Amino acid sequence: MATAGVRRRFCRCACFSTENLYVARYGLHLRFLDEQQLRQDYGPILHSRGCVSNEDFQQLLVELKQEVARRRRLGQDSAARKALIVSSYCPVRPNIYSALQDAALAPEFLAAAQYSVSLGADLAGLLQRLETVSEEKRIYRVPVFTAPFCQALLEELEHFEESDMPKGRPNTMNNYGVLLDELGLDEPLVTPLRERFLQPLMALLYPDCGGPWLDSHRAFVVKYAWGQDRELGCHYDNSELTLNVALGKAFTGGALYFGGLFQAPAALMQPLEVEHVVGQGVLHRGGQLHGAQALGTGERWNLVVWLRASAVRNRLCPMCCREPDLVDDEGFGDGFTREEPPMVDVCALT
């Protein structure tokens, strides 16, 4: 079963404004309501991480208040940036904005997706067409895009990066990269990638994690380079499932590392390391603890697609682990809906 591609109103959980506020220099995700709560909940651990003086704490307070305000404006600000980009930006690779063609996709990916919707398809058969990175952690890898497509997409992303267009942060932990919705690549690229190809794969790989009911996504490209972001701390994704594709360029280091499902970061002792391979995508559950090691040399660009199933998250927000307190939002929001999603046969999406 899968959700139909019907445009519905999507929402955020209200916890987005106050939960999981990432402070890189202390390596912590914080909940923030006010100064008293912050001191009470995090005073000792902040002190142990270097937040020692009153000046340190006041600087942290300013940053947290600014981040809360940014998150509350996020939908409105993103819509304004997208409107300006649509009206003023001139792409260097306009063909990237055409509807996704099979020629952009690796033969192995096409074969896996085709098998997934064939009569009698099952997990064992699909796994013969993927690389199993970790059976225990249910992490898989498969070539997704061809080398020419990766190169063309990178050229477009770099052209946009060098333009004077406004740019939003990819997520709450990365500072450099591109939101594909704002650039206008959601509808021609990411939505068909999810509906036509990822949907049937994930339905077989993760039937218990929302795989059969994916109905929205958040897609962004992250960039790692010297003088910018170089690594990424331990975290969970705000997704049921995640696709992470290495686009390039030439680089060393920066491997992904994985812990357990919803494992506490402090308990991560022997992570599983997964090297990036350009053009190939790593598939994993959003709740799988993971991060990225420091970049050695060069630049690394990755396309990340957070895949969401409202049928799952409407019952429990993966970020606050409570019944979601819904707030209307722009676009796909954070994948929550006020109504149950309609269901159709997955074969209808092919």
Automatic annotation (TrEMBL):
Gene that encodes it: Ogfod2
Name this protein carries in UniProt: 2-oxoglutarate and iron-dependent oxygenase domain-containing protein 2 isoform X2
GO MF: dioxygenase activity; iron ion binding; L-ascorbic acid binding; oxidoreductase activity, acting on paired donors, with incorporation or reduction of molecular oxygen
Known cofactor(s): L-ascorbate
PANTHER family per UniProt: 2-OXOGLUTARATE AND IRON-DEPENDENT OXYGENASE DOMAIN-CONTAINING PROTEIN 2
UniProt keyword list: Dioxygenase, Iron, Metal-binding, Oxidoreductase, Vitamin C
Keyword Metal-binding: yes
Residue ranges occupied by any Fe2OG dioxygenase domain in the UniProt entry: 215-309
Keyword Metal-binding (UniProt): yes
